[in-house]
Design goal:
about 500 residues
C-alpha cells in the first residue's frame, strides 16, 4: 500500500485540480449570472440561504468528521450514523418549511415563502450522502470526489444559466442550490456502492456522536459569527444592498473556499492519521501551512491592488458599488489563510473543544463589529468585519498553539518565505497598476498585472528564497518518487 504522504500529495493535487475547475466554473457563473440577473435577485435568495445555512450546519452533525478522524470504524457504526444523518435531514427539511412564513414577516418580502419551501428539499439530498462522502474521504479517494463535485457543479450551473436566459430571475439561483446536492447524491451512491445496514444501539457510536456534536456546535458558532451581517443588511438595508455586499463577499471568499476544499480536506484526513506520531505530525503540518500561505498571499495582494478591475471584468459595470466592499474585505483572505490550517490541526489532534472555545469568543467580537458598522451600510460592515479579524489574529494564533507541539517560532518560520516573496511581487504589481492605469482597459491591465505579479512571486519563492526543491519534491510525489523520504506510516484505511 502507498504510504500516507504519497496518497496525501496525490490527493492534494487531485483536489487542487478539481478546485481549479470548480473555481473556473464559479467565475463563469459569476460573470454570466451577474450580467443576466439584478442585485436584488441575489439579495432575495441570500435572505433565505443565510438562514437555511444555519440549519445546514446540522446536516452532517459533524459525523462525517467523526468517521474520518477515528483510527478504526466498523460498517455497523457507519450504518447507524447514516440513519442518524437521514433523520436529521428530514427534521431540517420540515424546519425549513416552518420557517417560510417567519422569513416573509421578518424581511417584509412575500416572495421568500416559496423560495424557502423549495430549498427544503436540499436538506434530504445533503444528509443522505454524508457518510458516503466520509467513506470516500477516509479512503483518500479524492479523484472520485473531484469528479463528482465537478459534474454536479457543471449540471447545476447549466440549469441556472439556462433558467436565467429564460427569464426566471431569482428562481435560477434557487434551482442551482437544489440541483447540485441532488446530482452529488446520485453520483456518490453510484461511486461507493455502499448500502447501509440497520441502525444499532450497540454500535458504539456514542463517542462519535459527542465528537460530531462538538464539531457541529463549533461550525454553528463560526457560521453565525461570519454570516449574521447578511441577515442584518437584508433586514435594515434591503435586497439591493445585500445583493451587492453578497456578491463582493462571495467573490472575496472564493479563494478561501477553494483552498479549504482542495487542501483542508486532505490535510484533515492525513493529520488525523498522524495524531499519535508528534514529530511527523509537526513536520507535515508546517509544510502544509507554508503551502497554504504560499497560495493565499499573492491572491490577497492581487485582489487589493486590482479590486476595481476584478469587479468590472467579473461582475460588470452595474456592480461598481461592490468595489469598495470587495477591497475592504480583502484582508480576510490572508487572515483565514493563516488561521484555518490551525483549525484543521486542532480538530485532527482531538482538540475540538479548544476550537469550540475559540469560536465562542470570536463570534461575539465579530457580531459586535457588525453592529458598529451597520449604521454605515455595507461598507461600514465590511470595514468593521475586516478590522476585528485583523485585531484578533495574533491572540487566535497564540491560543491555538498553546501547549501543542507547534511553537510560535515554528509558525513564524513557516510564514517568513511566503511573506517576503509576496511583498516583492506586490511592488512589481503596483508598478504595473501605476503606469498602466491611464492607457489600458481593465481586462488587459488585469492580465498584465497578474502575469507580472505571478512571475515575480515565483522567481522570489522558488529561486531567491530557495524553495524550488520543496515544490519539485511535491511534484515527484505524484509519481511515488519523492526525495523527501517516507515520512509517515502506512495509512489505516
Amino acid at each position: 500500500m502507498k504510504d500516507l504522504k504519497e496518497k496525501a500529495v496525490q490527493g492534494s493535487v487531485a483536489k487542487i485540480l478539481g478546485q481549479g475547475v470548480s473555481f473556473a466554473l464559479r467565475i463563469v457563473s459569476m460573470m454570466v449570472l451577474s450580467r443576466l440577473l439584478d442585485p436584488k435577485d441575489f439579495g432575495l435568495v441570500a435572505m433565505v440561504t443565510v438562514v437555511t445555512g444555519i440549519y445546514g450546519m446540522f446536516t452532517s452533525l459533524g459525523l462525517s468528521s467523526a468517521t474520518i478522524q477515528r483510527d478504526t470504524v466498523t460498517d455497523q457504526q457507519i450504518s447507524t450514523l447514516f440513519w442518524v444523518n437521514l433523520l436529521t435531514g428530514a427534521v431540517l427539511g420540515l424546519l425549513c418549511l416552518v420557517s417560510a412564513p417567519i422569513l416573509v414577516a421578518f424581511y417584509h418580502e412575500p416572495r421568500l415563502f416559496w423560495v424557502t419551501v423549495a430549498m427544503a428539499a436540499g436538506f434530504l439530498f445533503n444528509s443522505a450522502g454524508v457518510q458516503h462522502y466520509a467513506l470516500l474521504e477516509r479512503q483518500l479517494r479524492y479523484v472520485d470526489m473531484t469528479v463528482i463535485d465537478t459534474l454536479s457543479s457543471v449540471v447545476s450551473l447549466s440549469v441556472g444559466i439556462g433558467m436565467a436566459f429564460g427569464g426566471f430571475g431569482y428562481w435560477a439561483l434557487v434551482a442551482m442550490t437544489i440541483v447540485k446536492p441532488a446530482i452529488s447524491l446520485l453520483c456518490v451512491l453510484w461511486t461507493t456502492r455502499w448500502i447501509p445496514g440497520r441502525p444499532s444501539r450497540g454500535a458504539g457510536v456514542g463517542a462519535m456522536l459527542r465528537f460530531g456534536g462538538t464539531i457541529t456546535l463549533n461550525n454553528l458558532v463560526v457560521y453565525v459569527g461570519y454570516n449574521l451581517e447578511k441577515i442584518l443588511l437584508g433586514r435594515f438595508w434591503g435586497a439591493d444592498s445585500l445583493g451587492i455586499y453578497g456578491r463582493a463577499y462571495s467573490l472575496n471568499n472564493l479563494p478561501t473556499e477553494s483552498l479549504n476544499g482542495a487542501v483542508g480536506v486532505v490535510a484533515f484526513s492525513a493529520l488525523s492519521r498522524l495524531q499519535n506520531d508528534p514529530e511527523r505530525l509537526k513536520n507535515y503540518f508546517l509544510k502544509g501551512y507554508t503551502l497554504v500561505l504560499a497560495m493565499t498571499l499573492p491572491i490577497t495582494l492581487f485582489c487589493a491592488l486590482f479590486a476595481d478591475d476584478i469587479i468590472l471584468v467579473l461582475l460588470g459595470p452595474k456592480w461598481t458599488g461592490a468595489v469598495a466592499i470587495f477591497r475592504l474585505l480583502t484582508p480576510t483572505v490572508l487572515i483565514f489563510g493563516m488561521i484555518n490550517p490551525l483549525g484543521w490541526f486542532l480538530i485532527s489532534s482531538g482538540l475540538q473543544v479548544r476550537s469550540l472555545k475559540i469560536g465562542l469568543v470570536l463570534a461575539p467580537l465579530v457580531i459586535l463589529a457588525y453592529v458598529v458598522g451597520l449604521p454605515y451600510g455595507p461598507k461600514g460592515v465590511a470595514w468593521a468585519y475586516s478590522g476585528v479579524l485583523a485585531l484578533w489574529l495574533v491572540p487566535h494564533i497564540l491560543w491555538c498553539l498553546h501547549g501543542t507541539i507547534i511553537s510560535l517560532g515554528d509558525l513564524l518560520q513557516a510564514m517568513r518565505i511566503p511573506f517576503l516573496s509576496g511583498i516583492v511581487a506586490a511592488v512589481f504589481a503596483f508598478g504595473v497598476r501605476f503606469y498602466c492605469d491611464g492607457w489600458l482597459i481593465p481586462l488587459p491591465r488585469l492580465l498584465l498585472g497578474g502575469a507580472v505579479m505571478l512571475g515575480a512571486y515565483l522567481w522570489m519563492l522558488l529561486f531567491v528564497m530557495g524553495q524550488k526543491k520543496m515544490y519539485l519534491d511535491l511534484l515527484r510525489g505524484l509519481r511515488g518518487r519523492s526525495s523527501i523520504g517516507k515520512e509517515v506510516a502506512e495509512m489505516n484505511c
